[in-house]
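User: Let's play a game. I give you a shape written as tokens, and you guess the letters that built it. Ready? Here's round one.
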């Protein structure tokens, strides 16, 4: 039995420039904390190695503190062998990065920089396929077919890239043969690049990122425990939870008779989970103005509980009658403003985003009028 943890796409040093306040720093620190969590899992599961299938760093020029602190953390777990593969974000084209890594890496860290068999343990060989550039333009795993290893040993492929047209950036280049494990006689092919865990066949898996960094995959951060019980035996795969933050996309579908505030309350996580949650709520359907305003108010009230909270109301259409506008004002400047905003919210010649802005402004005006009246 040989056990190891398969992970990838840590993207250490990612800046998260789309967020403000202390959140970018918290997200960067969570990515660094993944290393310790992987080590804990390795000890608990009696796994002797952690294999990182590319994009350990977010760029080819990570800050020196990001690089050094990552290596230091790995060195704090000397019983675990760490294998780092260059990915498309930290490819071998970054010669200075990998030369510094080679000089600074502790003894238990192996840099898989060459496409040649690497003996990881007795009767266990890793066949790495490092990315030579950000877009190698070829199947970097092809060499594995003829890679020589002793008879009766485990062959583990380690690569970073796309299967067919399957890639993070939507490109069809740099395709890895989907049946590479079979062609090369691999017991397991550990892949990186796709940020959500996915099985390609019985021996080929994407681990996904251990700490989510976007809403695209809507999956928890995880790594894979891989157990190989002999040459050509099928691997046993066990997902391991690793993420500190949850990125949640919540669909809030509203009918005219529904209370959107109640629906929202039933969708969101419990209060003790919100600080570690980034939530994007996608509202759709139809809603009367009063309930639209109440939903906006509820979202504003909930927002400080979360690491980040966004209510997207582009898909939520306003339903109204004259009584709704009368609740704001029957005449005068406020009524003129309300009529104008309602006209924009209903104007199909405007973009969905422009209509949503008008609807949100009308809801705020309605709230203001209600607060003033009370």
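Assistant: Ready! My guess for every position:
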């Amino acid at each position: 039995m040989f056990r190891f943890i398969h992970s990838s796409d840590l993207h250490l040093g990612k800046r998260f420039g789309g967020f403000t306040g202390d959140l970018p720093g918290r997200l960067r620190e969570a990515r660094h904390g993944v290393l310790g969590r992987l080590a804990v899992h390795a000890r608990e599961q009696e796994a002797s190695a952690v294999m990182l299938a590319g994009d350990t760093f977010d760029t080819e020029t990570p800050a020196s503190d990001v690089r050094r602190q990552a290596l230091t953390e790995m060195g704090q777990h000397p019983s675990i062998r760490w294998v780092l593969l260059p990915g498309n974000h930290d490819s071998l084209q970054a010669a200075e990065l990998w030369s510094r890594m080679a000089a600074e890496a502790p003894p238990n860290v192996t840099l898989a920089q060459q496409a040649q068999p690497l003996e990881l343990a007795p009767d266990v060989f890793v066949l790495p396929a490092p990315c030579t550039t950000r877009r190698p333009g070829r199947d970097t795993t092809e060499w594995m077919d003829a890679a020589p290893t002793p008879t009766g040993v485990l062959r583990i492929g380690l690569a970073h890239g796309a299967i067919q047209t399957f890639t993070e950036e939507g490109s069809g280049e740099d395709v890895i043969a989907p049946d590479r494990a079979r062609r090369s006689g691999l017991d397991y092919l550990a892949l990186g690049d796709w940020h959500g865990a996915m099985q390609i066949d019985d021996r080929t898996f994407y681990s996904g990122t251990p700490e989510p960094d976007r809403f695209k995959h809507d999956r928890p951060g995880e790594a894979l425990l891989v157990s190989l019980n002999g040459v050509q035996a099928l691997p046993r795969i066990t997902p391991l939870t690793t993420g500190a933050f949850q990125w949640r996309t919540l669909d809030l579908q509203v009918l005219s008779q529904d209370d959107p505030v109640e629906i929202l309350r039933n969708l969101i996580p419990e209060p003790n989970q919100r600080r570690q949650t980034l939530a994007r709520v996608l509202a759709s359907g139809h809603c009367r103005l009063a309930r639209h305003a109440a939903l906006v108010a509820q979202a504003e009230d909930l927002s400080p509980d979360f690491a980040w909270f966004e209510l997207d109301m582009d898909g939520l259409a306003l339903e109204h009658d004259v009584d709704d506008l009368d609740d704001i004002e029957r005449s005068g400047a406020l009524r003129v403003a309300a009529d104008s905003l309602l006209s924009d919210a209903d104007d199909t010649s405007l973009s969905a985003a422009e209509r949503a802005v008008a609807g949100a402004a009308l809801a705020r005006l309605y709230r203001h009028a209600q607060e003033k009246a009370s």
